[in-house]
Amino acid sequence: MIEPSSAVGSSADVQSSELHRHIAYRLEALEQEVARLSGRNGLTVCVFSGDLDRLIAAFSIANGAAACGLRVCMFFTFWGTTLLRRPRVASRGKRLVERMLGWLLPAGPHAVRLSRLDLGGLGRRMILAEMRRKGVPDLAALMEMAKNTGVEILACGMSMELMGIRAGELIDYPGLRVCGAAQFADMAAEGNVTLFV
Amino acid sequence: MSERKTIDLTGMRCPGPIVQLNAEIRQITQGAELEALSDDPAFELDAKAWCRRTGHELLALASADGIVRARIRRRA
Q: Is the pLDDT of residue A8 over 60?
């Protein structure tokens, strides 16, 4: 079938503009990939604190950054490691001091306290009720969200050792690894933003 | 190119709307549009920043009666 020459011309224009758009998409994807590979697009968070309010802030920023396409890594050290403990784990095989730390320190997102106005749990319950009422995601929800946004979690081996936290006590989180200062430094060096919480 | 999906993000607060937006944009085809409604006061600036970061095209951003409406075209 022979088309009129004008129709042939316009279909060629359409093809050319589609090709142009396709190339523009590919170029942008490549630019993003280059930015990612050159490490100019990464957030590293050192989570030292085990306070509920600080942890909510850390996870909110981490999730937001991951959704914006940044590679996000959270390194949990000292009091922060308590968030990565599963609650109610048998303390068999631990020394007395380790057991005591196990009892005294919180375990998991539902046990951590506010840094201010916790008021023995009363203030915490008030804040959590307000968060629910206002649609602000709580810490457990933020941790679930982090699994989906691809936030990486590292646990400080030294802190775990110090507090008597065994690898088997850690929460189920995809890709969770135990590491030290060198791995943290490596992640931080690969990214361009580092926060200490 | 007239394909457009609307998502209701009202009731969600930071970082919920942006995380949801990021998940939804993956569900549509390249070049298709997504319209997002949010009552989060942070959403107006966050939607702009998210588009800048991810490279998706912000076609329109309007706020009325406490509802921010963002129209976004998926790139790459």
A: no
